Amino acid sequence: MDFELSEEQGMLRDTVREVLTKNYDVETLRKVTDTDLGWSEKVWNSLAEIGILGLTFPESEGGMDAGPVEFTSVMTELGRALAPEPYLDSVLVPGSLLGIADDATRAELRQGLASGELLMAFAHNEPGDRWPVAAVATTATADGVLNGTKTLVGHGDCAHKLIVSARVGDEIGLFLIDADAAGVSRTAYRTHDRRRGAEITFTDAKATRLGSGDASQVIADTEVGIQTALCAEALGIMERSLELTVEYLKSRKQFGVPLATFQALTHRAADMYVQLELARSLDLYAISALADGIADPTIASRAKLQTCRSARHIGQEAIQMHGGIGMTAEYPIAHYVSRLTAISHTLGDADAHVAKLAKDLGSYDMIKVG
Amino acid sequence: MQLKFSPEEEAFREELRSIFAKVPEDLRKRNEEGKLNYPDDIITSARILNEHGVHVPNWPVEWGGKDWTPIQFHIYREEMNLAFVPEPLPFNAGMIGPVIAQFGSQEMKERFLPKTANLDIWWCQGFSEPEAGSDLASLKTRAVRDGDHYVINGQKTWTTLGQFADWIFLLARTNPDVKKQAGISMFLIPMDTPGIELRPIQLIDGSYEVNEVFFNDVKVPAENMVGEENSGWTQAKFLLGNERSGIARVGYTKTNLARAKRLAAQTKTAHGTLLDDPLFAARLAEVENELLALEVTQLRVAASSADGKPNPASSLLKLKGSQLQQAAKELLADIAGPDSLPVAEVAADAPNGSARVSAPEWAQLAAPEYLNYRKVSIYGGSSEVQRQIIDKAVLGL
User: Taking every annotated instance into account, which residue ranges of this chain make up the domain Acyl-CoA oxidase/dehydrogenase middle (chain B) (predicted)?
Assistant: First the structure.
């Protein structure tokens, strides 16, 4: 049993933290997220320079050969800083799906992603989908002509290339297409947590198939990775939310005394700590499973369920204990809570994951670690 | 990062399983069903564990303890729960044994520790008083020196299983003129000493688990004081710090949830079984998930504990652990539903589970157990006390 980061992993975390805290405070964050792009190319280039973007790719593909422990600790740091850079959407997810591509294509695209010059996005979700249902009604012909609509494509607005899931005969295939190709039309949007996305329609758009054979498994495995990454990001956000709340309870005075003198508040902070640590535990559980090469959707659901419960509890309590200032966009806590809320509604909320776990209850006798 | 037990730890687990299997099966079955015979089953089980050297592993090695790692202690507690071996009597194994080993004279250690380990002495705890609960240091029971004796007057309460006890370890005030923590001493007293009177308190489930103990001019030899006069608060804090470790009882709650699952699958509703009911299944799945999160938390605490120092995160384990124990008992009671209403034959002294009606015995026992388990978030430092510890020791509030 070992729950600690290795020395190297710890250094990686510290480096990312340093880059992000140097670049982001709440004012900068508001400025950056008010631009059309919604994130900072300067920060993006810094992340590329220190090797973060290619972190999980093999060295031969411009990467650092690192695994889930490393990419989740980057996600936690992005969460702590509330950095809006699209590491997950534009690099990690497409990078993972490229696993099914042929060697040359995979190497070329991953090198582009690692350098920070290429941005990609995964166009999978369709109108009417709600986790765990993904209809994939978009169709592709044998020679890769796409028709259909994809929605909620995270950072689809800025992507240069898209990976699109589409039905080809009885199979689900993954298709690569330039985002500005003929027949591709994008409608960008802003999210409540100040991120970006796009709805994308494909009308007789000519794409290239990635690899061959049914891609359902690689999509499912990637989804486990996304869930784990989101949980790790949420963990960083919850950590900061509790820290900010505790600092506020110590510094804010009412009735001539610090708020920390009121047990009605401090005992609730203790409950936030309990929720944080429970989420951290299942987060670590999911990360170590992934690190062992196990992409288990049940484990991902377990981590996501606890994360959603903890996120809602910690988020709402954090604002409540800040009082009015917690409602303002001028103070960080509101941004943290908005992001937590968005994560909780991505790839299944607490109820959706409880429902999945509840269906499987009869298949085992006793809950066990491992 | 590695969330796996080592091959050595797995071998250790197997070794413990074979030891725990030596406790008679019928006794363990009674424990599973909540029908232990007190005090016999506890004593039988304790002596088997002691014979195999695993009754008091938390004690110093020279007095029968083991220099296990925190992970090994975790495995020990879990396997004990999964095998339905009764947990060692906390007053002996968890409380007074370590206190005597730490603070007692050599003579006192030799006199008491072997008998305490073998349950030749059954100890009870004389700490709480009617006016001193969470604020234990405000206790009023007085001990006044009289030659080579102390004379004790006062009242203790919530003395768990005191009706079976041979000895009591008692906190009493030896100096009323100093700060309240500074005037307390600890005494070891035989329960059959003249002037001690025990009154059972019946609990919400009809059981007799706790007692009041009255002290009227009780004479105690001075050598029965643990450590120095007025050093009792140090010993009490040491004891209470030990009390919290292992109190999450994750293994026990696991067995209760597995049981709830089996019983729910047998319980018919209008549309199948209770386990098919989405609302019920969601509740169970949710508690299970939290339990898994708590188990991993416990492993994290164990993996990071050094030198056996109390980790403030153990307050989290107590706080959440007691909530989940209660959630599991609540599920069991709710599965029993209307069948939980009858509990016994009419006679006032008929035991729970004895009603001769259609409701099965487990269902008759379910509501009393559920009601009884409110205690776990009150004893051993209430949930509110644990939150206070988290605030001070973890959050700096």
Answer: 124-218
CB A157 within 8 A of CB A197: yes
Q: Does domain A217-363 have CATH number 1.20.140.10?
A: yes
Q: Which CATH number is associated with domain A120-214?
A: 2.40.110.10
**Active-site annotation of B, residues:** 243
In this structure, the number of other CB atoms found within 10 A of the CB of residue A211 comes to: 16
Mean pLDDT of chain B: 95
Closest chain A residue to the Cα of B397, Cα to Cα: A260
Name the B residues in 12-71 with CB < 8 Å from any A CB: 71
Helix axes B361-372, B313-336, angle to 10 degrees: 140
Report how far residue B331's alpha carbon sits from residue B267's, in angstroms, rounded to the nearest whole number: 13
For residue A195, count CB atoms less than 10 angstroms from its CB and return exposed for 0-12, middle for 13-18, buried for 19 or more: buried
- Helical residues (DSSP H) of B23-63, grouped into ranges: 25-32, 40-51
Q: What pLDDT is stored for residue B381 in this prediction?
A: 87
In angstroms, what separates the C-alpha of A203 from chain B's closest C-alpha? 42
Q: Where along chain A do its domains lie? A: 7-115, 120-214, 217-363
Structure tokens at A9: 């992993």
Cα-based angle A296, A300, A301 (whole degrees, multiple of 5): 115
Superfamily for domain range B7-88: Acyl-CoA dehydrogenase/oxidase, N-terminal domain (1.10.540.10)
For chain B, the domains span 7-88, 123-230, 245-395
Q: Do B316 and A263 touch (CB under 8 A)?
A: no
- Kindly report the CATH number that applies to the domain delimited by B123-230: 2.40.110.10
The pTM score is: 0.95
Q: Are B377 and B322 in contact (CB under 8 A)?
A: yes
Q: Which two tokens stand for residue B85?
A: 């071996």
CATH code of domain A7-115: 1.10.540.10
Least CA distance to B300: which residue of chain A? A3
The confidence score (pLDDT) of residue B306 equals 62
For residue B380, pLDDT over 90 is answered with no
- Tokens representing A163? 């990976």
